[in-house]
Amino acid sequence: MHSFEELSKEFGNIFSSRHFPDQPGSLYDPAEYFLGIGGKRIRPVICLMGNELFDVINPDTYAVATAIELFHNFTLIHDDIMDKAPLRRGMQTVHEKYGEPTALLSGDVMLVVAYDYLNRIKPGYINKIIRLFNKTAKEVCEGQQLDMDFEKQDIVQLPDYLKMIELKTSVLLASSLQLGAILGGAQEGNQKHLYEFGKNLGMAFQVQDDYLDAFGDPEKFGKQVGGDIVANKKTFLQIHAMEAGSHTQVNELKKLFSENTPDKVNKVLEIFRQCGVDSWAADLKEKYLTQAFKHLDEIAVLSSRKTPLKQLAHFLVQREH
Amino acid sequence: MHSFEELSKEFGNIFSSRHFPDQPGSLYDPAEYFLGIGGKRIRPVICLMGNELFDVINPDTYAVATAIELFHNFTLIHDDIMDKAPLRRGMQTVHEKYGEPTALLSGDVMLVVAYDYLNRIKPGYINKIIRLFNKTAKEVCEGQQLDMDFEKQDIVQLPDYLKMIELKTSVLLASSLQLGAILGGAQEGNQKHLYEFGKNLGMAFQVQDDYLDAFGDPEKFGKQVGGDIVANKKTFLQIHAMEAGSHTQVNELKKLFSENTPDKVNKVLEIFRQCGVDSWAADLKEKYLTQAFKHLDEIAVLSSRKTPLKQLAHFLVQREH
């Protein structure tokens, strides 16, 4: 068994090789540039972990893990175009550096190359792997579309927001684990529990991300607190405040989100606290984590094999207790 | 054996069913909208023809043909974004109707669904099919990128232009035929000849397209003659004129292409004629057609099985003799 850090190092070495032809450089260099600006490679590494949970690592898993990471980067390149984002990981986005048409096309070709990697695995598994990969790919696109739809809405209901986050963020984590499990010969019941572990962990992670953006310690969090509030982003916190707040609080929030005054962040945070959004978010994160670990417990393998996944979960979602 | 028209009608019926989930409609309706505005479905139908050349039609071919048509439409949706084209087949393009972010995402999800169809075929063939499909998909992206690169260049050399057209247009026709042949159990030599038939036919078709845009009879051609000249597009004719013209003619062309005077089309056509571009293009088209038929002749099946493909070639490239 290997820890996340060990597998991360190993995958990083493998993934750092070139994935595209040399020519035409005007198409493929932008794709390589984006892969080169980093990323934590969480999804491919948990694919390897999902595989090793059941057996020694099946070599085909590296190909699937690579496909997952290429897919993830393809979505980032295209999301950045849609969001008109100038920076990603502190570096220029592809469309900012090479223009939108080239960014669009580099993303397209990255998705095709992801399928090249899927096509390398043994025939016995390929149908199942592509089926789950494609289901997930469609869901991620659906999540991104819903996210864009929600930007145009004043009020988004919590169940709709949860569904969007599930599609946009959680299912790819869940599927990365399950794709590994499939290649590990796991039974369907075990696969399902591992998928649900990943999905709930993804939800907990997103709740935490929203929470830290609003209430995190700026020094520990590493970035300016309140970024989501300044950008009028829909978050777990904003959605809940609009639901739980009094008529006056909701109107005040609407007013604050319609302008950009210097004291906007503090005033919004004040209302968030009045509505009990902070403790609600902590409870919600805990709820998802409990669910995640319940599913992990249900997986019928030796408990010791689950240690790396448990450690990873604690690392991703810094549980305070 | 079936004619192009018969297979076209059959495929059209099959393809007209919905290919995407209902929800979210904001993502999938734009994709369905684009498929609904028509198209000749040439590529999927020649895939079926490439299959029937060798045997009765293998049912898996319909899935591959559908994947090919979805891939083709995905490239059109994204190309229209890159070219900022407001219309396609006389209808609003997807980005014009639904906005660029949704058009981008609808194209993405269409490519994923293309792979869903590929994943339906029997395991015995799937690796070969995805390998050729992906090789072609990458080449089409490369062709589109080169086309965009060339727009920024004053002078493009003929060999570079030929390569771009081959990648952007011809290889998808060639591969559509070969994908059908693979599913028909064709031997590799026969597959190769069929591929080359399609590639050369594609080149001949593009030369004809460029020729008709400049020298075609407006009534028969069905659209305004000289559209490429007005848009300063690189075409076979423009490339050859820049190579074959005298110093004075080349300078005059550069001047004409740098402005939009009312007599631009007539003046450019006059120089094209002086440079012998019209007869050169007729010869070039003939050269490609001869090559195409040479490869068709080499395929080791009963000559009578080749009749539908011969008829299609004559229909696509109206040979005058």
Describe this structure in words.
- The structure is a homodimer of 321-residue chains.
- In chain A, β1 (87-88) and β2 (91-92) form a beta hairpin.
- Chain A has 321 residues and is mainly α.
- A two-stranded antiparallel sheet of chain A has the order 1-2.
- In chain A, 74% of the residues lie in helices and 1% in strands.
- In chain A, α4 (60-83) runs antiparallel to α8 and α12 (236-244) packs across α15 (277-298).
- The first copy, chain A, folds into two domains: 1-131, Farnesyl Diphosphate Synthase (Orthogonal Bundle); 187-321, Farnesyl Diphosphate Synthase (Orthogonal Bundle).
- Chain A has helices at residues 4-15, 25-36, 42-52, 60-83, 94-98, 100-118, 123-151, 158-183, 188-215, 218-221, 227-230, 236-244, 247-257, 264-274, 277-298, 307-316; strands at residues 87-88, 91-92.
- The A-B interface holds A 21, 24, 26-27, 78, 81-82, 100-102, 104-105, 107-109, 111-113, 115-116, 118-119, 123-124, 126-127, 130-131, 134, 137-138, 141-142, 144-146, 148-149 and B 21, 24, 26-27, 78, 81-82, 100-102, 104-105, 107-109, 111-113, 115-116, 118-119, 123-124, 126-127, 130-131, 134, 137-138, 141-142, 144-146, 148-149.
